[in-house]
Design goal:
The complex is a heterodimer of chains A (about 375) and B (about 475). Chain A has 13 helices and 17 strands. Chain A is an alpha+beta fold and about 375 residues long. Chain B is of the alpha+beta class and about 475 residues long. Classes of the chains: A alpha+beta (about 375), B alpha+beta (about 475). The interface between A and B is large, with 86 and 91 residues.
Chain lengths: ~375, ~475
């Protein structure tokens, strides 16, 4: 099904006789496998409003990220949460949509400084499991009118409703950016260095570890030069470091971190582990042998490429969770993609799903 | 402002209810004498008052759970209360309710600078969260005007903002986790020191739910390193619209100030008489603050001042010292108090797209003439969060009602301009009956359905947020 308007979308859902598999650009494929009739938002397209002076864009859910980015480019603005493009890591094709970004709360390296997609999402329109069109939030930056379903819908992977329109806060692009690379650090040293940088007043907008430990700063040229010098000074005890001051080269580094390019076309399972940054070294040490890792968010996000078919959740710290992002069908059939929560939260989530989707037809089982 | 009639069967059981609460709480934690419960009869929306049945002041999460279990079993409504600074009536009691105050829950449980968070009990005041970490040069970013008094519990309930949220966001953007007690006494953690949820973002749902879904007893909050410095610049214009255009141009230019504050003539003149900040004689005044090292501040201010000069300012005043910076902020920070000196006032909180600022200000001026009530405008211009202050005389019969009617018109205007009823104060009772102007029935229905999940018997702060007619069937069914 390819509804062309929100009304058609609502009619299609109201008339549905069984489970629906909801598709934006079809590039992410995260979650437990869903069996159902495909319903796509690909025909719900177009930017309905873009006000650069109000830092706001409103678009239909199926609008491609390419179209969104092109529009923002003309005003030298961007989505500051740096949405992850999953195509490289998952080997998918097609065109990511803004609705898919929101449904997955897809956020990249800059999340550590500016927040996630959910923090930039100002409003949503969606159709619930009964075919009712609902709006929440709006297009202004401060809005506490009623419950915040905007946050609830972000990262709900189409299980509460099918997004038809989203409004987002945008921000100006900085004049330039630079990346400081620290070489040859252990995981523990790396997290220490990232914590020190993030705990400094120098406005770090990326804090990651691939082969090198990586720290990004952005802003006006003189300010970036100043903060780069200050950070080199601050982190002097961590040894050898180099700076990438060409903004294009710096951008490539962070696109690769955000999109987890290093694990593209590899074998094994891909896990995304969300923890307290200082727990990262011990968490990594407890992962199965043969695991490769990339750290982002100062150590609070671990991308782990593990040998196939191993459930690593038992080894995680008490606070945090792991999401299985990529695995063979057999593993996905046996391990839940999303980590089960405590029984109280599970019951609340089930209660909420039952209100939004009483028939249980929207991506049933995708989140568990 | 209507409130539901108190449930007589609850009023008649007061002694029994108090006794049950006393059996699970320390003796001094249950306040029930008529003269003493009066202390809880209102919050900062003091035009509306009603003493509660009784008040409880638990000192631990377990005591909160015990009190809620009793109320749940006995079918008694509970109104949670932080510090009682709500401008929307969020903590306004009904005669048949138990006020659950979290003021005794004010400790710091954990500070972690490596992971940049603090865990506090929810009755702790906003400013004392920063107070707990500022020796290490850290701070908690959301800074509502009431930050000296307001509690984190209330900040979470209302998703409070502040002057600096243009850069740092509001409460929800700085909240990592909570410990919460449901109405039936169930205790659960939601979120924590890690950045995102394993499943649905229930934390995002809790924040801003106005104490209707649960009682938050602990919060894990993001703390940030203080910037090297900050400096404001004052810009005076002879036209509101020009000031509005200047705001839009600054935002578009790629500078991100931490604050852009706006004051109109009534506020400028009144605060000048009161605080003598030395503000120029003008129609509209902007205070723009930027942060960074001295050189970074110079660079950003140069960009901002160049933009301002294109808008024909009456005066541009850059703070050359900490003292001058304080004077620039003095008048703005005194504005509410200054207006309060000359008149009773109602403070509105509608938010509009920044582009609509000139139109909305003009229309507010017209409404002011129509109603014969003066309006001062002071607000966070960068994010379109307006705070029109409508002056009225509480001693003059009918003036409060006139003020309410005009307030309703202004808020509807904000919604019609593409904005919303409330940007940071919350709906409470104040904007409850205007919700149908912003939301269609199905938009409200799904929100009330969420309350059904967390609080099926509709006992937690039941007469707030939703129009009484919309929530009536649920509240009555629960009785």
């Amino acid at each position: 099904m390819n509804p062309q308007t929100e009304i058609e979308l609502a009619e299609a859902i109201a008339a549905a006789k069984g489970p629906l598999r909801i598709i934006g650009g079809g590039t992410r494929g995260i979650g437990n496998p869903v069996v159902g009739e495909a319903i796509s938002t690909s025909e719900l397209t177009g930017i309905s409003l873009y006000e650069p002076g109000a830092l706001t864009i409103v678009a239909q859910a199926g609008t491609s990220m390419a179209e969104i980015e092109a529009a923002l480019d003309t005003e030298n603005q961007r989505l500051a949460f740096e949405p992850m493009d999953h195509r490289t890591l998952l080997g998918t094709s097609g065109m990511p949509t803004i609705g898919g970004v929101v449904a997955a709360n897809a956020s990249g390296s800059r999340r550590i400084a500016v927040g996630a997609c959910r923090d930039h999402l100002l409003g949503v329109r969606f159709v619930d499991g009964m075919g009712t069109a609902i709006k929440n939030g709006g297009r202004v930056m401060k809005n506490v009118t009623g419950y915040d379903l905007v946050k609830l819908l972000a990262g709900s992977y189409g299980t509460l409703g099918v997004l038809s329109e989203v409004s987002l806060k945008v921000l100006p692009k900085p004049e330039t950016s630079a990346t400081l690379k620290l070489h040859g650090l252990t995981d523990a040293q790396s997290v220490d260095a990232l914590s020190m940088a993030l705990g400094s007043p120098f406005e770090v907008t990326g804090a990651a570890r691939s082969d090198d430990t990586l720290i990004r700063i952005e802003g006006f040229a003189a300010s970036v030069a100043y903060r780069l010098a200050q950070l080199k000074d601050l982190l002097g005890s961590f040894g050898e470091m180099t700076a990438v001051t060409d903004p294009a080269a710096s951008q490539v580094i962070w696109t690769d971190i955000t999109n987890v390019t290093a694990f593209a076309s590899t074998s094994g399972d891909i896990w995304r582990i969300s923890i307290k940054p200082s727990d990262a070294p011990a968490t990594i040490a407890a992962l199965p042998s043969g695991t490769q890792t990339i750290l982002d968010w100062g150590g609070g996000l671990i991308w782990a490429q593990t040998p196939a078919g191993i459930d690593l959740r038992a080894t995680l710290p008490a606070v945090g969770h792991a999401t299985l992002i990529r695995a063979a069908a057999k593993t996905r059939a046996s391990l839940p993609a999303f980590q089960p929560e405590n029984p109280i939260l599970t019951a609340l989530a089930q209660g909420i799903r039952a209100k939004f989707d009483p028939r249980g037809i929207l991506n049933p089982g995708l989140m568990g | 402002m209507d409130m539901p009639l108190p449930d007589q069967s609850i009023l008649s059981r007061k002694a029994e209810i108090v006794a049950r609460l006393q059996s699970v709480l320390p003796k001094n934690a249950v306040i029930h004498a008529e003269s003493e419960v009066r202390a809880y009869e209102c919050d900062a929306l003091s035009a509306y008052r009603c003493p509660p049945l009784c008040a409880v002041l638990p000192a631990s999460t377990e005591e909160v759970a015990a009190a809620l279990r009793v109320c749940h079993e006995m079918g008694v409504p509970v109104v949670p209360r932080g510090s009682g600074t709500s401008l929307a009536g969020g903590a306004l009691p009904t005669a048949d309710c138990v006020i659950l105050g979290v003021a005794r829950l004010n400790g710091v449980l954990e500070t972690n600078y490596d992971d940049r968070y603090i865990r506090v009990q929810s009755g702790r005041t906003n400013l004392s969260v920063t107070g707990a970490v500022e020796a290490e040069d850290f701070f908690y970013a959301p800074d509502p005007s009431s930050q000296l008094a307001c509690a984190i519990a209330g900040n979470i309930a209302m998703n409070s903002g502040g002057a600096h949220c243009l850069k740092y966001g509001v409460t929800t953007n700085n909240l990592l986790g909570v410990k919460m007690v449901l109405m039936d006494g169930t205790i659960t953690d939601i979120g924590g020191a890690h950045l995102d949820a394993a499943g649905l973002d229930l934390l995002g749902l809790i924040c801003g739910s106005e104490g209707q879904l649960g009682v938050v007893t602990e919060a894990t909050l993001r703390i940030l390193r203080k910037p090297e410095g900050a400096r404001p610049v004052l810009m005076a214009f002879n036209d509101n619209e020009v000031a509005g255009a200047c705001v839009a141009d600054i935002i578009k230019a790629g500078v991100l100030p931490v604050a852009i504050e706006f004051m109109d003539r009534l506020c400028i003149e009144t605060s000048e008489k009161y605080a003598q900040a030395g503000y120029p004689d003008c129609e509209a005044l902007l205070i723009v603050e930027v942060e960074g090292s001295p050189a970074e501040i110079d660079e950003q201010l140069a960009v901002i001042l160049a933009i301002a000069r294109k808008h024909d300012p009456v005066e541009l005043r850059e703070a050359k010292s900490a003292e001058e910076a304080a004077r620039i902020w003095l008048g703005r920070k005194s504005a509410f108090g200054a207006i309060g000196q000359i008149s009773d006032y109602m403070c509105l909180d509608g938010t509009i797209p920044v582009s609509s600022l000139p139109m909305v200000l003009r229309r507010i001026g017209e409404l002011s003439e129509e109603y014969g009530l003066r309006v001062g405008n002071v607000f966070h211009a960068g994010d379109g969060n307006m705070h029109p202050l409508i002056c009225y005389d509480a001693n003059k019969p009918g003036d409060l009602e006139l003020c309410e009617a005009m307030g309703a018109e202004i808020l509807k205007l904000c919604v019609d301009a593409g904005g919303c009823l409330t940007g940071e104060h919350g709906v409470g009772i104040e904007k409850r009956d205007l919700m149908t102007h912003q939301f269609a029935p199905q938009d409200l229905e799904i929100q009330m359905a969420i309350k059904d999940v967390f609080d099926p018997s509709w006992l937690l702060n039941p007469a707030k947020v939703f129009p009484l007619t919309s929530s009536a069937s649920r509240r009555i069914a629960a009785e």
